[in-house]
Structures are given as structure tokens and as C-alpha cells.
Amino acid sequence: MAFAVPVRHYKPFLFEGCPLVWLKRIAVSLVVVLVAVFAVLRYQGVQRLAAYTGGGLARPLPDAARWAGQSCTVAPMQVLSYNVMYGSAFIEAMAARFKHGETGKGELPWSVRLPEIRARIAEYNADLIGLQEMGTAADVAMIVPPEQYSLVSYRQGSVEYADSALLYRTARFEQLDAGQLWLGNDPELPMSLGFRRLSMIRYVNWVLLRDKASGFTFLYANTHFDNAGVNKDPSSLLFRARVAGLAKQMPVIVTGDFNTTAQEARYQHIIGANVQPPLLANAYSLAHNPPVPPQLHPDKRIDHIFVGGPCHVEADNWLLDTRPLQNGLPMSDHDLLTAQVRFF
């Protein structure tokens, strides 16, 4: 007697409950995710999505020709630039949580240094203030009184990035326009990465101001160049083309940590030395100051105050404040820089 043995047909599978069709779907999903990640890294997809869904691209710099030929009569302006070193409550909180309070150089926490930084800045009673390494508007307000100064920095929704925050005395100036120029391959793309992929985000912060008493109109810009040469060199060329170039037709004041000394080739790009006279001049070279010690000379420093434009311009009281905290420890890894600028 013959018996029929049933033959079972099994669908191919990798393991129980995972047929091949599902494996294919997982593989396709992984490919899609990898492509999306590549797009974000290569084409800054997150920034583009934010820009094209409401944030918008960066505002264009002013048309300098509109301000050509204006009167140069204006009272002197006290200008201050200071890289405060990690001026962020958020960075301090992260350092306290994950690094035993260390932010990388063994310096005192921001909250400890903050009161003396606030007092030091107040000493100079500046009209224009450029800060570097700030975190948010709240951090800035802790060292520069918001009732006296107006702040310009990048903010879109809940995202704040005040690394190159600038402030102007509200009672003296009227703001006509403001924006950022992003130091990367996409200068108009907010939060654009640097010229090298996954670089630190850097920008030139600018504001168009009118002196209320005289009507004198000028551009004030503040910046913080990256410390990697692959980003600094192209940043200097972009700065020359977009910012220093405005000085051909309108008055310009610039503060910042350029991570560049006057002895480096990129410094010549920054000041527009390919034309004579250069588009921008270092305030130190215009000041009637006694000589400073070699270690304080701006040729060896990376923080600068630049001025330029069709008006005559002079500077007085150029000063690099090297005083430490009262306990003798560094107030920052940079020194406060200030000068009085006069257009006429």
C-alpha cells in the first residue's frame, strides 16, 4: 500500500517571522536613510529645509551706492571688541554635566567670570560693541545692559546663535537694516557650515546704522573667523568681496576675532590691500598713541578693529586691556580691544 507524503513548500526567509519581502523593505529603507543623511551632510539639507519652509535666506548687504556722497560730519564713536571665551550658560551646564566643569582650557566657568566681564565692558562706555563666543540673547544681556544697547544676532524661532553678537547704543543710533553673511560655500544660507564639511558655523553679523544727531549712515560689522586654515582663507576672500568692498562707497566699521595676524597673507585679503589705499585700515595705524610693547602690537594679535570708507577717518585711544580677573586668573583667552573712531 502506497502512502502519499505531503510536500511542504517553504517561502525563503532569513529567520522565523522575517520573510524575504520584509528584508527587501528594510534594505530599501536603509538606503533611503543613508541617501538622506548624505544629502544633509553634502548639501546642508536641514539648513535648506529651514530656509525654504519659512526662515528664508539671509538678507542682502546694503547697496553702498545709496550712501555715497553723504556728509561725513559725525561725533566720535567708541568701539569695543571682545572675545569673552565660552560666554554661554548652556556650554557651562554641559561642561558641568559631562566634563566636571572643564570647557577645554581649564578656565573658570562663565558664571564666575561674568560679573567682572560686565564691569570691564562698562568701563569703556562704548557706542558699538562686538562680542565673540556668545551663546544666546540672554547670555549677552548678562554682560551688556539691554536697556542701553540694542542687540543684533541670529535668531530663527527657538534657534539662537549669537557667536558674533553686536550691539549699538540705542539712544544714539537708528537701525535701518541688519543681517548675517555666512562664512561658507553658501553665504546666503542661514546656519551654513564652513567651507570644509562639518565645520563650525561662522558668520559676519552686520547692521546699517544712522546717527540720530547728524544723519551719518554707516555699516557696522562684527565677525569671528574659524580657527581652521581651510576655512579662514576662503572666509577672508568672501569678506573682502562682500564687506570690505562696501568701503569704496560708504563708511564701514568692523570688529572681530579674525584668527589672523597682520603677518599672514590672508590679512591682506581682509583689508583689501589689492587696491591703494587699502579698503580698510587697522584702527591702531590711525591712532595717535605712544608705541605699545611688541607683545601687544596688533601685528601679532588676531583681534582687530578696522575702519574704511570715502570719508577721512582717524582713531584715538587705541587700547588692548590685558588686565586679568581680580584673583589673577585670565578673564578670557583674548584681551578686550577698544578705540575711538572719528569720521570727518
UniProtKB/TrEMBL annotation:
Keywords: Membrane, Transmembrane, Transmembrane helix. Pfam families: Exo_endo_phos. The chain crosses the membrane at residues 20-41. One of its GO terms (molecular function) is 3'-5'-RNA exonuclease activity. SUPFAM superfamilies: DNase I-like. The keyword Transmembrane applies. It comes from the Bacteria. Residues 114-334 form the Endonuclease/exonuclease/phosphatase domain. The keyword Transmembrane applies. This is Endonuclease/exonuclease/phosphatase domain-containing protein. It comes from Methylovulum psychrotolerans.
